[in-house]
Q: What sequence folds into this?
């Protein structure tokens, strides 16, 4: 019994020592952390507001992009219809030429076959040129759109006290409210509509800024001016150009 009492007393006596030792360890740890926290608190804060934008959606979902897509789709459908008509005519001519071959001598048939091949090649080049013209129109109108929307995006950034605009595809994580794509589309539609009334001067110089700061390049406008230098791949319209004519059999 005495031994148990002695052991119990020694344990009770050691408890305050253990608690004191533990407190000393915590205090030592906090002593090392506190200066670091204080030092971090004294670091200068860089207040830079960032906004993100989906460039493809900006172009394709805007009234400007929607109008252009409808125009190009109509023109592409017209070219495809022409191709089908021309193809049917060439198939009929080729069939007739094949029948003539049965009754014509090689000397008589060769010039006719050569003329038919030249006709097919000329028609194919003509239709391919029309398809390329559609892509060129898309490229021109896309560049026109880029020049026009720069000041609009600068005004939008300024209104949100943002200094940097990033492509949302290049952002790993963003909180809600950082993306301004839909707000930008609404602002662009309100400023230029579908773009059908824009003249050459508007496309070359961009839309006139709506605020004094934008005019003299002050504030966020000087930084957001890069909004007019969006990626040249902006808003590539999905779908392929009308196919060329098939080679005759």
A:
């Amino acid at each position: 019994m005495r031994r148990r009492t002695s052991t119990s007393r020694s344990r009770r006596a050691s408890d305050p020592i253990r608690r004191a030792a533990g407190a000393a360890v915590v205090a030592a740890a906090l002593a090392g952390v506190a200066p670091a926290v204080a030092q971090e608190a004294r670091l200068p804060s860089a207040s830079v507001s960032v906004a993100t934008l989906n460039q493809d959606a900006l172009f394709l979902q805007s009234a400007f992009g929607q109008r252009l897509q409808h125009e190009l789709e109509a023109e592409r459908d017209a070219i495809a219809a022409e191709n089908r008509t021309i193809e049917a005519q060439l198939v009929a001519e080729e069939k007739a030429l094949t029948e003539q071959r049965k009754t014509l001598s090689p000397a008589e048939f060769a010039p006719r076959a050569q003329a038919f091949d030249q006709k097919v090649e000329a028609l194919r080049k003509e239709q391919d040129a029309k398809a390329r013209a559609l892509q060129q129109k898309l490229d021109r109108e896309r560049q026109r759109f880029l020049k026009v929307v720069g000041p609009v995006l600068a005004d939008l950034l300024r209104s949100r006290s943002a200094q940097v605009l990033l492509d949302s595809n290049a952002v790993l994580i963003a909180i809600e409210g950082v993306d301004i794509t839909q707000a930008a589309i609404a602002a662009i539609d309100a400023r230029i509509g579908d773009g059908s009334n824009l003249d050459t001067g508007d496309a070359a110089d961009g839309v006139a800024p709506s605020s004094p700061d934008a005019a003299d390049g002050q504030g966020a406008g000087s930084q957001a001016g890069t909004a007019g230098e969006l990626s040249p791949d902006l808003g590539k319209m999905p779908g392929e150009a009308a196919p060329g004519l098939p080679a005759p059999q």
User: Anything to note?
Assistant: The chain has two domains: 1-45, 50-229. The CA atoms of residues 80 and 186 lie 34 Å apart.
